[in-house]
Structures are given as structure tokens and as C-alpha cells.
Amino acid sequence: MPGADHLSHELPDDDPIGLQSFAVLLRAMNADFNRIAQEFAQAQGLHLTDVQALIAVLDADRDEAGGPMTPGRLGARMNLTSGAVTACLDRLEKAGHLRRVRAADDRRVVHLHYTPAGRAAARESFRPLAQATEAARAQFDADELHVVVRFMAEMNRQLARRCS
Asked: Which of 2, 33, 62, 152 is deepest in the core (most CB within 10 A)?
């Protein structure tokens, strides 16, 4: 990924695992993630918020509530009004990325599902990210990867706690 290689010399020499080093590296990674997401959004004729909604739908079974994403959960997760959620879902449905499906047990409940075509488009666009991730993972042994995953999971927990 562009941007990450030139950062190694900018990290503080006196504390390469200190807060400043983490901040520099996390900002650089976030910038690259945002660039990739923006490129996907532009290629698909979507807004960046739409891409964030797709990610929320994709990861819905892994969040605290679990199960298929609903418009209400999506709005709460993304801090959007019901009108903004409806507009976002309309765009995503029109673009063929997701579909709304009424729950069989309660027709008032709407579940949001990624379409196969939407998954294929995302897989193709985010392939460079997957390849970069796999190349980076290959540089570490299993014990090191467990530590990295533990750190990332804890970062997510801390951020979720502070942002909710």
C-alpha cells in the first residue's frame, strides 16, 4: 500500500513502540483504508457513507446484537436518522449491493442482506487490500499474529467503549 513504507523512518527512534509510533502508524493505515473505500464508492456511484453501511451489513453477525442487520440497528450504529438510513439503503438497493427482506417470523422486521453481485464487486475492489493483508501476515509467525489480533481486538473494544 502506498504511504506505509515511507513511515518507518518517521517513527520516533527513542520509543518505536510508544504512543506516538502507534498514532503515526494507525493514521497512515486509516488513510489508506479510507482511500480504498473512497475509490470503491466512486467506482460504484456510491457515497462513502454507503460503503460504511455495506461494511456494517457485512459484519452484522459479528457485532453485539448479532444476526442480520436491520435498518434501525444500522442507523444506531452509524448515528444516522431514519431518513438518512432510508436514502442510503435506497441507493445501495438501486446499485444492486443489498436487498431488504422481511423477516419470516415478524413481517414488520426488515433484514438487510448483501447481494452476490455486491459481494463480487466488493471482493474485486478490495482485492489489493486482501493481498496486502496476506503479504503482511506472511511476515509473522502464529504467536506474533495472535498478539496482533489481540491488540486489534482490544483497540476495537476501547474505541467502541469511548465512542458509544
From this structure: 33
- Identify the CA nearest to 112 among candidates 159, 65, 43: 65
Torsions phi, psi for 105 (to 5 deg)? -85, -20
Q: What is the pLDDT along the chain (164 residues), one digit of tens a residue?
A: 444 444 444 666 778 889 999 999 999 999 999 999 999 999 999 999 999 999 999 988 777 777 889 999 999 999 999 999 999 999 999 999 999 999 999 889 999 999 999 999 999 999 999 999 999 999 999 999 999 999 999 998 998 888 76
Is residue 67 a contact partner of residue 60, using CB atoms and an 8 Å limit? yes
Residues 6 or more apart from 21 whose CB is under 8 A from it?
A: 11, 12, 15
> What's the rounded Cα separation, in Å, for the pair 164 and 154?
15
- State the alpha helices, DSSP H only, in 45-141: 48-58, 71-78, 82-94, 116-125, 127-137
Dump the DSSP string for 71-88.
HHHHHHHHT--HHHHHHH
